[in-house]
Write a structure and sequence with these properties.
The structure is a single chain. Helices cover 35% and strands 34% of the residues. It is built from 7 helices and 12 strands. The strands form 3 sheets. Strands 2-3-10-9-7-6-5-4 form an 8-stranded antiparallel β-sheet, with helices on both faces. Strand 5 and strand 6 form a beta hairpin.
Length: 291
């Protein structure tokens, strides 16, 4: 009943304002430094964790089920955010979202997987609807590229209110190949968020003074052979506004924290799914063409 009343109240507020529940906010510069420290510490352990074996980030209590999923070529994903860090920075309107996932891609070599991951012109088809554009400069100059990518995400709150977010990300993509493994790292230098949340529009808000859904982004691909298959991990670390500090009104109606909480939960988790499943599907498509 409480959820129904909240939904009804929000419906009135949306009708009065004609807007969706995004509400601008600002990033505390100190929180960006907190995020950079978090990323630095996380990166120190990534190679060691990857070298420890498949799904080493899955707790022992869940390992059997996770290994069964991996064996059947189903994705495994997990939120590995540091709760203590987020408890400390929540009151200053920040949270670090750290997700990782993995999948087994059958019948593909590491070189074939690399060709898929570096086919940037197909990203908007391979990873739809999340990636709307992907442009890379210096493709011939390994190991890195200057990239611009368009991202979008949407979900429905209380099955009634569609929420749309769109971003243009400018960053660097570095690649490495060695010791029988492949890795790529995307580090965003600038993220501009669309005010309307509609991909393709140039109504970008001021950097670090926007809806606060994604202020910073680092993404990592790691892969190695797994018999005649490939084991692929995808990991993201993002910085966003805090649910605890969230305050927003639409007209006369206060927007529940659950609106932004759902975005915080869904966007990073969905990105892991889209990348893993999209890569597997593209590998399967190419294999069928070769036959």
């Amino acid at each position: 009943m409480r959820a129904m009343l909240a939904a009804a109240a929000l419906l009135i507020g949306f009708a009065e304002s004609g807007r969706t529940a995004r509400c601008t906010t600002s990033l505390d510069p100190q929180m960006l430094r907190e995020y950079q420290d978090y990323v630095f510490a996380a990166e120190q352990g990534m190679d060691r964790r990857f070298g420890a074996g498949n799904l080493s980030w899955v707790p022992a209590s869940s390992r059997k089920e996770a290994n069964a999923k991996l064996a059947s070529c189903k994705q495994v994903r997990r939120n590995i955010s540091d709760a203590s860090v987020n408890e400390r920075i929540a009151a200053r309107n920040a949270t670090v979202l750290h997700w990782v996932g993995a999948i087994r891609i059958p019948g593909v070599s590491l070189a074939e997987l690399q060709a898929v991951l570096e086919d940037f012109e197909r990203y908007d088809r391979m990873y739809r609807p999340m990636i709307t554009e992907f442009r890379a400069k210096g493709v011939e100059e390994a190991p890195g590229f200057d990239v611009i990518l368009g991202l979008q995400s949407s979900f429905r709150f209380a099955s009634l209110f569609p929420q749309h977010y769109a971003f243009r990300v400018h960053g660097n993509l570095e690649r490495a190949r060695g010791n029988g493994a492949l890795s790529l790292h995307l580090r965003a230098r600038e993220i501009r968020e669309s005010d309307s949340g509609v991909a393709g529009r140039n109504d970008f808000l001021e950097t670090y003074h926007d809806h606060g859904i994604m202020w910073a982004l680092n993404a990592y691909w790691r892969a190695r052979p797994m018999g005649t298959d490939v084991y692929l991990e995808f990991e993201t670390i993002t910085l966003a506004r805090s649910v605890q500090a969230f305050s927003c009104r639409l007209g006369i109606v206060p927007v529940p924290k659950s609106v932004v909480a759902e975005a915080m939960d869904s966007i990073p988790a969905d990105s892991v799914t889209v990348i893993l499943e999209g890569t597997r599907a593209e590998c399967a498509r190419r294999a069928s063409v070769r036959r």
